[in-house]
Design brief:
heterodimer; A: alpha+beta; B: 126 residues; 29% strand
């Protein structure tokens, strides 16, 4: 029988007459038979063509880089799907023609070849390690070299794409969290994994810059960026190398302005790669270092490839049988309802038990070692006996079953033979049922903050999420801070802060104030005394007590605490100790926020790095006795957005604390903070005056 | 300038420059700016020939200032300050070596391309 290998078959060229014919559906009216499969495929092709046109339009219309990349990705996927469907259609047409031909020439009987059952194949947890050179970290000036990557997975006629991931030199691996499940795979499947990448720099719209300008730009921008610009302008110079039969399944994409994805690496996975564990596979890399879409891949890919053949998950055969009792009287037969599934023949007392999920009465194992034999006709019964023998260690256990009629016997034997054939074809997948997790509904992609401040990280969706969002962000910040101080990079300014939150003015609500206290150095963690009984995140360095005054109006601070110059400070019920013994405050942010929920609480902000413009309400009324400690600075943390006196009155960090200079004005401290960050940033080249 | 090969001694033709610090208010100034250091990104150094050279370079000279008078030039690489090595030093440490408050004079050993060329030329002539 004429059988074509899909990879060797030339794909339908775009714009060719054949493609136009297919698009116009002219094949329907041709001499070829019109089966339901064809019309399904035709519908799919039409659908994908519509999607592709939509993607092209979106690509032309969108201005943001992220949108353009996503649209280009959909375009790529649609194009690949169209190609696959069209070649499938082609093959089917040819098969039909061939069939007609053979039927005419000879009367071949029904095909007797046994086909193995199909199965589900799932690939998940794709991880591709990267191998950045150390020069990447120190040489690159300016922006990070970013690439957008995604994987295209194809098995049979099904093509899926993963989510897009932006990769830069801060990543050590490209991870795709998606689980892709292919539903109809035969044991001889070939799962083709292709990694596409596209350079994600902003300025490289192809072809528009004249050469002279480009060379000028390249010399002034620097070697690496100039190289990239030049490479981006020569699209032909780094075309993917196609080797032999493994040519990329790329439809020549209609020339739409915008980002284009190029094939970076590919591999093919087969049944032998299936395992219930993670495995590493080799990647074939196309492209070289000069290409704009290049990423230094380590050369391998880790993933979990699992397969669930239908013989393991579905009932292959069921019916009523009579099982001879072992060790009992020879004529004692028990009538059961038997179900052949997976590696066992489960026998239930009644058919309803199967749906009711009752445990089977007993189970006969059916695996590769089992031997099944139909015995000679027993004169006492109508059907033939079937003997099922299993070897358990040194013993051999034989069950004898019989059926109602000879037809039943035939059917059962057929089912057993088919089952054995399936197991021999699916090999290791039939030893045990592999778990396949169904992909959960996709979560919306998190908006990445452009700036690093907490204010911008706040995504206020609903008041329910607010407290957890903020406390999560704070907790993360705390961890970052903790790490940083442990590394010893910021010893001088990470001193004790006692923070005063100005009370909101004129707000007829219970006053709250936040205090953030930083422990002087990381190893010392004095015990906290939580004010509110609710749970709050444990924060090592940065913690605050929200003085939740449930409905009372003001607390007086009980003990002196460090005072920031400008703000008279009213409600600090939590301020404790003398400057020398400052306790870290606990953040009962959840509690605070829950009380503020109804008031459209806005940005809660605390940062001990660059404090962005905070929203501070002038304080009022009673001042608590607060002493100014020279070794402390205060960091303000705004607590409401009600009024917007956005002055520079948030605290700042003095970098000269070690010299005992109490900071007075925000600006020199802010400058010195900037200096510090400049010093700590390895990508700068500082110049200092002597 | 000479390139740094790990493990190999660095050789350079140097010129001794003696700068008298100038008192301005409560500070002693030298009248130039430096850039570089092992904690800095060397590829951004406009004056170095070898872009992996993490040494301390003179980036600006205040005209008429003490450094200018003493003969320091923009682009010079400072090898030593008062005997302290400057070829493998962090930026702020170099700063501290230059701005010690109890020293009135700093003796620098600097190297520049023209020096090397001059010496090589002179040797070649001989």
């Amino acid at each position: 029988m004429f059988c074509r290998n899909q990879t060797a078959r030339a794909t339908v060229a775009r714009g060719s007459a054949l493609e136009m014919e297919i698009r116009r559906g002219k094949f329907r009216k041709s001499v070829f038979l019109d089966t339901s499969q064809d019309s399904d495929l035709q519908k799919k092709i039409d659908h994908e063509i519509r999607m592709r046109d939509g993607a092209c339009k979106l690509l032309a219309a969108c201005s943001q880089r992220d949108q353009a990349l996503e649209a280009a990705k959909s375009l790529q996927t649609c194009s690949t799907r169209i190609m696959a469907y069209m070649s499938e259609l082609q093959r089917m047409k040819e098969a039909q023609v061939m069939q007609k031909v053979t039927r005419r020439s000879s009367d071949a009987g029904p095909m007797d070849d046994r086909q193995p059952c199909k199965g589900k194949v799932a690939i998940s947890d794709l991880r591709i390690p990267l191998m950045w050179k150390d020069t990447e970290y120190f040489k690159n000036k300016g922006e990070l070299h970013r690439c957008a990557v995604f994987c295209l997975l194809q098995l049979g006629g099904e093509i899926f794409d993963t989510d897009m991931v932006i990769v830069d030199r801060t990543l050590t691996d490209i991870c795709f969290d998606n689980t892709i499940v292919f539903s109809e795979a035969s044991p001889g499947f070939e799962l083709r994994v292709e990694l596409y990448s596209c350079c994600s720099e902003d300025d490289y719209s192809a072809g528009s810059t004249p050469r002279k300008l480009a060379s000028k730009l390249s010399s002034s921008l620097g070697r690496s960026t100039g190289k990239k610009l030049r490479a981006a302008m020569e699209p032909g110079s780094c075309s993917p190398i196609s080797n032999g039969a493994a040519s990329p399944l790329l439809l020549p994409v209609p020339s739409v302005p915008g980002p284009k994805y190029h094939l970076l690496a590919h591999t093919t996975l087969k049944l032998s790669h299936v395992q219930d564990n993670f495995r590493t596979h080799d990647l074939t890399i196309s492209g070289n270092e000069e290409c704009s879409y290049w990423l230094p891949l380590y050369g391998s890919m880790c993933c979990r490839l699992a397969a669930q053949p239908h013989c393991m998950t579905k009932q292959m055969m069921s019916g009523s049988l009579k099982v001879k009792q072992l060790g009992g009287e020879p004529q004692n037969w028990t009538k059961v309802h038997a179900v052949l599934k997976g590696t066992s023949l489960s026998c239930y007392h009644r058919q309803d038990d199967v749906e009711a999920n009752v445990e089977p009465a007993f189970t006969i194992g059916i695996n590769k070692e089992t031997r099944i034999r139909a015995s000679e006709k027993d004169p006492n019964s109508k059907g033939q006996n079937i003997c099922i023998s299993n070897q358990y260690g040194a013993d051999e256990v034989t069950h004898t079953v019989t059926t109602e009629s000879r037809d039943d016997t035939h059917r059962w034997m057929e089912a057993f033979w088919q089952h054995f054939y399936d197991m021999s074809q699916w090999k290791q997948c039939c030893d045990d049922l592999m778990k396949i997790e169904l992909p959960s509904p996709r979560k919306p992609a998190l908006v990445t903050p452009k700036q690093g401040s907490l204010y911008h990280e706040m995504v206020i969706e609903s008041s329910d999420d607010l407290s957890t969002t903020v406390s999560d962000i704070l907790a993360r910040r705390m961890q970052e801070l903790e790490l940083r101080s442990q590394l010893g990079t910021s010893p001088t300014w990470m001193t004790l802060f006692e923070e005063n939150i100005p009370k909101s003015a004129g707000r007829p609500r219970p006053c709250e104030s936040h205090l953030l206290g930083y422990s002087p150095c990381s190893p010392r963690h004095p015990p906290r005394s939580p004010i509110s009984p609710q749970r709050y995140p444990q924060l090592g360095l940065l913690s605050s007590d929200a003085s939740l005054t449930s409905d009372s109006d003001s607390h007086c601070s009980t003990s002196p605490c460090s005072q920031q110059h400008a703000w008279p400070d009213s409600n600090f019920s939590l301020l404790t100790s003398s400057p020398s013994r400052l306790r870290p405050r606990t953040l009962s942010l959840d509690a605070k926020l829950s009380t503020l929920r109804g008031r459209g609480y806005g940005a809660f902000q605390c940062s001990c790095q660059t404090p962005p413009t905070s929203i501070v309400n002038p304080l009022q009324t009673s001042q608590s006795p607060l002493s100014l400690c020279s070794t402390q600075t205060t960091l303000s943390c705004s607590s409401s957005t009600s009024s917007n006196s956005s002055s520079n009155s948030e605290g700042s960090h003095s970098l000269e604390l070690s010299e005992g200079v109490p900071f007075s004005r925000p600006s020199p401290a802010r400058r010195s903070l900037r200096n510090l960050r400049a010093r700590l940033d390895p990508r700068n080249w500082l110049q200092s005056q002597v | 300038m000479t390139c740094y090969i790990p493990g190999q001694p660095v050789t350079a033709v140097v010129q001794k420059i003696e700068i008298q610090k100038l008192r301005q208010g409560d500070r002693l100034i030298l009248g130039f700016s430096i850039g570089g250091g092992i904690d800095q990104d060397p590829s951004q150094n406009p004056y170095s020939e070898d872009k992996s050279d993490k040494g301390i370079y003179v980036t600006r000279i205040a005209p008429g200032g003490p450094a200018d008078v003493a003969g320091l030039r923009v682009g010079d690489k400072i090898m030593q300050v008062n005997g302290w090595d400057m070829t493998m030093i962090k930026h702020y440490q170099a700063l501290k070596k230059l701005t010690k408050p109890n020293e009135d004079v700093v003796r620098l050993l600097v190297t520049r391309k023209s020096l090397e060329q001059a010496v090589r030329g002179a040797m070649g002539l001989q």
